[in-house]
Design a protein that fits this description.
The complex is a heterotrimer of chains A (402), B (308) and C (289). Chain A has 402 residues and is an alpha/beta fold. Chain A has helices at 2-24, 42-48, 50-62, 86-98, 111-123, 138-144, 155-171, 187-202, 221-229, 241-253, 270-276, 294-307, 315-333, 338-346; strands spanning 28-35, 66-68, 71-81, 104-106, 128-130, 148-150, 178-184, 206-213, 234-238, 260-263, 284-286, 351-354, 357-360, 370-377, 380-387. Chain B is mainly α. The chains are: A alpha/beta (402), B mainly alpha (308), C mainly alpha (289).
């Protein structure tokens, strides 16, 4: 009985699939995606990149595909593992373009891999709409690679806004002048710490403790001890996922309670909340979203339903938005001819409606409206500083861990 | 120069010349695989120049390579492009000489782990200095194309093969073969084994640094975690051993199938790439002891030594 | 001052957990196991899994993780590595083969773990309370891990020193050829050592998962650390590994707190390279004859 009903449903499913395939046989848009599934950045890509990409493809196909001039076209996704290796990222982009002949490619994950793959995208005329690439080099990069677009924002703005949050808090009389500044010693951390330091000093803050630690360090007790001894009002860490967790962990253990506690990447991950629960309250991190925006709520619910995990409150949305932009450009031009789509994207008067809100690109292919700082408030990571975005929440000071 | 030497030289030049023609045929997919192959050919061959005769397994390739990429990253805006590989070669050789001098006493696994530690030490120091000087991420934006890089690497490969061939013919080559077989005998027969070893290590270090300097424009964004990634050292060792280090062409015989295999697996099993790569390694170790050179020599042995 | 010492010793305990297993595997079975870190991550995954699925404490999970890891590693040695040992003409040839084979194994293990658990980060919250010693606070889970590491190290040392099985193992570690002459089944002893080493490593992983954030690809980091500690301490002597782990832990913490955290790893490598230069056989190693 049971077996028969299963057979029946299988047969029905097969018939349906066949019918669907026949009805839609007319057009397919092939989309290629290469990003880390293994290697040092796999953990981040697994939270931020892959679920967002798969979700967009799933939703677009469920809605009947993208509307081209001669009817709808379904998306066919090809995935590759670039092993967090620039060499492999280059080869994968090459392979997708010239062997699989995909119509479009999803931009890779992370700044380094995006830049390694950029010449391939550029030479073969693929738009590269990046959602996880933070850089300050938009002028040079867009000049060299006119098809490269930047959705996530500028490093400079993120570091500046973090400093500005402190300035506001100081003016409100909530915190004093003392800041501890630490960073993970790689290109990202060094760049962010450098900018923060100069902005903070310009604004009359005193850097009472500054240090860096090697990539991959999770034995962080001495740093928290050092920072605590300097008695700062604010603690800012330009950190990566493993160390973000370790820094928070140690701060709790040593009862290090600055009024501002900021860690960078992974603070916006749902697993951060899952790990620290109520203790996460008031922790600040990079990015942010407007969690009250129905568009984001809908995205979060769908993300949960399809992938079994919530989106992070920062780059998940911007990764998803890169594909929305691509999809809208394809539908607006009604073609999968890359040159035409590229031309549309490069026409800076066009605007795209995304879950981040409307997005336009400036002369440097840069999105000028993005979230810069967020904070855990009542179990939600709210954007507390942004460039040109609505729904910015008020900052609260952190009131201890317990 | 004997007839056989002449034949080998002609064959090698023809093969390299043919390889250099590839970008005229395709500048896309094939070229990007070929560039990877050329990079590993140079690295593995120069690695085997040192490790083949001495049986010292060096895991320091990433240190030299990373050094080279940083030379380009720091200097490409201020110095002429042609100078960078030379500087990289100089620095690589100096570093190798230093390491060579202090590690002469070490052998076997101690040397292996020492070189691994060295690569990490260099990476940590570079990162620290970068952090201290508040240096931003390095963007190597140039007009150099993949084709240019490929040709540079082919030229480098030609140079490495030539050097290897000359060494094998020289008195030093003779000395090295003796060191590999029995260092005590070598010492007693009046060969300066220390000098020979250091010289070879310097060559392989300089070559790896030059390759790093040449590859930097391909990566565009230079950061220590990718420039000094230890996986590179392991890849080079695996490819060289897979080919076999007993002959000059051995590493090449490892690099070509290995790169193709890697690409094949990446392409056909995007979700199990590493699993299948791992299984492929294991298979190779069991089926091909001594690498392709070993296989070739066994075959030659079995079917008589016609080639000799 | 106490803070540096205690934090350093706690870190040393972690390092001992990472490296003790490899010492057995390399010292006795002569396999330089590059898949050591992956075995550690597998142990951590197992602990994470039983914790999130059934709220089983990672310490109780050891009762399952350790025997399971023993069996798996014993089989790995018998099936995969023993043929290489038999085939090897010299120690050098075995080293080359075992580097290649275990490197392949490490890839395969990362692949299996990614496939089974996904590539994402995992961590959980267990025993995160504070313990106050001399006015500074330390994490409970680190102290528990340290205590179990000490227990493990002590029992290993006693077992190796005072039992017949331990004696056989030391004999093989010193000289496989002579051991064979006195009627010891070298392969059986090596398989036992390799399995035991794997069990220790996986247990270490289960304990470390209480305070580290890990993912399927992170194993190589632990392998490198373990290699360095084992070589620094001297191959084939468990005491050496423990002393080296403690020295490294305290030195790193000292540098991080007093000099600059950015130099911790640099200092560790410098220390390692220094020891290797002046005492190539490691702190407790016997001079090769």
């Amino acid at each position: 009985m049971k077996r028969r009903s299963m057979m029946m449903s299988l047969a029905t499913a097969a018939l349906l699939a066949a019918g669907l395939a026949a009805a839609q046989a007319q057009e397919v848009i092939r989309l290629g995606a290469a990003a880390p599934k293994t290697g040092p950045l796999a953990g981040g890509a697994d939270v931020t990149h892959w679920p967002a990409v798969r979700l967009w493809v799933h939703q677009t196909n469920a809605a009947g595909g993208l509307q081209l001039a001669d009817g709808p076209a379904l998306i066919e996704l090809t995935e590759y593992d670039d092993q967090t290796n620039p060499q492999q990222a280059i080869q994968a982009a090459q392979r997708m373009a010239t062997q699989d002949r995909v119509d479009f490619m999803v931009a890779p994950y992370s700044t380094g891999l995006n830049l390694a793959a950029a010449p391939i995208f550029s030479r073969l005329g693929y738009p590269q709409i990046t959602g996880t690439n933070v850089t300050n080099q938009q002028p040079d990069l867009s000049a060299q690679f006119p098809g490269m677009f930047f959705v996530l924002g500028r490093t400079g703005a993120m570091a500046e806004d973090t400093a500005r949050v402190l300035v506001d808090l100081r003016e409100a009389g909530e915190i004093g002048n003392r800041v501890a500044l630490v960073n993970v010693a790689d290109a990202f951390g060094i760049e962010m710490a450098g900018i923060s330091r100069s902005v903070l000093e310009e604004n009359g803050f005193e850097i009472v403790y500054q240090t860096s630690y090697p990539l991959g360090t999770q034995d962080i007790a001495p740093i928290i001890d050092g920072a605590r001894a300097a008695e700062p009002d604010a603690f800012i860490a330009w950190s990566y996922p493993g160390d973000t967790f370790a820094l928070t962990d140690q701060a709790i253990v040593q009862n290090f309670t600055p009024r501002v506690f900021f860690t960078a990447v992974a603070t916006a991950f749902p697993s951060y909340q899952a790990r620290f629960g109520a203790q996460a309250e008031g922790v600040m991190g990079m990015g942010g979203v407007n969690p009250d925006d129905p568009a984001f709520q809908e995205f979060a619910a769908a993300h949960m339903e399809l992938t079994g995990q919530g989106p992070d409150f920062w780059a998940s949305a911007s990764t998803y938005a890169t594909l929305e932009i691509l999809g809208q450009a394809i539908e607006a031009t009604g073609t999968k001819d890359r040159a035409v789509v590229m031309e549309y994207l490069q026409d800076k008067s066009n605007s795209y409606d995304t879950i981040l809100g409307p997005i336009e690109f400036n002369d440097m292919n840069d999105n000028e409206r993005f979230w810069t700082v967020g904070q855990w408030q009542d179990g939600v990571f709210r954007g507390v500083a942004a460039r040109g975005r609505d729904g910015v929440s008020d900052v609260i000071v952190k009131d201890g861990w317990d | 120069m004997s007839k056989r030497d002449l034949r080998n030289l002609t064959l090698a030049s023809a093969a390299l010349g043919l390889a250099a023609l590839l970008p005229l045929y395709d500048t896309g997919y094939l070229l990007s695989i070929a560039t990877t192959m050329a990079m590993f050919t140079v690295l593995a061959t120069s690695w085997a120049l040192f490790s083949g005769p001495t049986h010292y397994i060096s895991l320091a390739t990433a240190a030299f390579f990373g050094l080279g990429t940083f030379v380009t990253g720091l200097g490409f805006q201020t110095l002429p492009m042609w100078m960078l590989p030379l500087i990289a070669a100089g620095l690589g050789a100096v570093l190798a000489a230093l390491v060579g001098l202090v590690t002469l006493r070490l052998s076997g696994v101690y040397f292996v782990i020492f070189t691994l530690g060295l690569a990490e030490l260099v990476r940590q120091l570079v990162t620290w200095v970068q952090n201290r000087t508040g240096q931003r991420g390095m963007y190597v934006l140039t007009s150099i194309t993949e084709r240019d890089i490929y040709w540079q690497l082919i030229a480098m490969a030609a140079l490495v093969f030539l050097v290897g061939w000359l060494i094998a013919r020289s008195r030093m080559g003779f000395a090295l073969r003796i060191i590999g077989n029995d260092e005590t005998v070598a010492k007693h027969s009046g060969i300066d084994t220390a000098m020979a070893k250091i010289l070879l290590f310097m060559i392989s270090g300089a070559v790896a640094a030059v390759v790093g300097a040449m590859m930097a424009p391909r990566y565009i964004y230079i950061e220590p975690s990718t420039a000094f990634a230890p996986i590179l050292s392991f890849q080079v060792v695996i490819m060289a051993l897979l080919g076999g280090t007993g002959r000059l062409w051995g590493p090449l015989a490892g690099v070509i199938p290995f790169t193709l295999l890697w690409e094949f697996i990446s392409r056909n099993a995007p979700n199990q790439t590493l699993l299948l790569l791992g299984l492929a390694f294991l298979l190779i170790v069991y089926v091909l002891p001594g690498g392709f050179v070993g296989l070739y020599e066994r075959l030659q042995h079995r079917f008589g030594s016609g080639g000799r | 001052m106490f803070f540096i010492l205690i934090t350093g010793l706690l870190l040393g305990g972690t390092y001992a957990l990472i490296a003790m297993g490899l010492n057995l595997q390399y010292g006795v079975a002569r396999i330089m196991n590059l898949a050591n870190g992956e075995m550690l991550v597998a142990g951590a995954f197992a602990a994470f899994w039983v914790f999130t699925a059934g709220q089983v404490s990672p310490i109780a999970a050891l009762l399952v993780v350790a025997p399971l890891a023993f069996v798996v590693n014993w089989l790995i040695y018998r099936i995969m590595l023993q043929p290489l040992v038999k085939r090897a003409k010299s120690r050098g040839a075995l080293e080359v083969d075992s580097i290649l084979a275990t490197f392949g194994l490490s890839f395969a293990l990362v692949g299996i773990m990614t496939w089974a658990f996904g590539g994402g980060f995992f961590n959980y919250s267990y025993l995160t309370g504070r313990v106050d010693i001399f006015g500074s606070s330390y994490a409970q889970n680190r102290i528990v891990a340290f205590s179990i590491a000490s227990l493990l190290a002590a029992s290993l040392w006693i077992w190796l020193s005072y039992t017949r099985a331990g004696l056989r193992m030391r004999a093989v570690a010193v000289s496989p050829d002579s051991a064979r002459l006195v009627g010891i089944d070298v392969h059986a002893v090596s398989a036992l050592a390799f399995g035991l080493g794997g069990a220790v490593t996986a247990s270490g992983g289960a304990l470390i998962s209480m305070f580290f954030t890990l993912d399927a690809s992170v194993g190589v980091m632990f392998t490198m650390k373990a290699l360095i500690i084992v070589i620094m301490g001297g191959v084939g002597d468990i005491r050496g590994t423990i002393v080296a782990a403690m020295i490294l832990g305290v030195a790193e913490t000292f540098v991080a707190r007093v000099i600059d955290p950015g130099l911790t790893l640099a200092a560790a490598y410098l220390l390692f390279l220094g020891i290797l230069l002046f005492r190539p056989q490691g702190l407790f190693g016997k001079k090769p004859t």
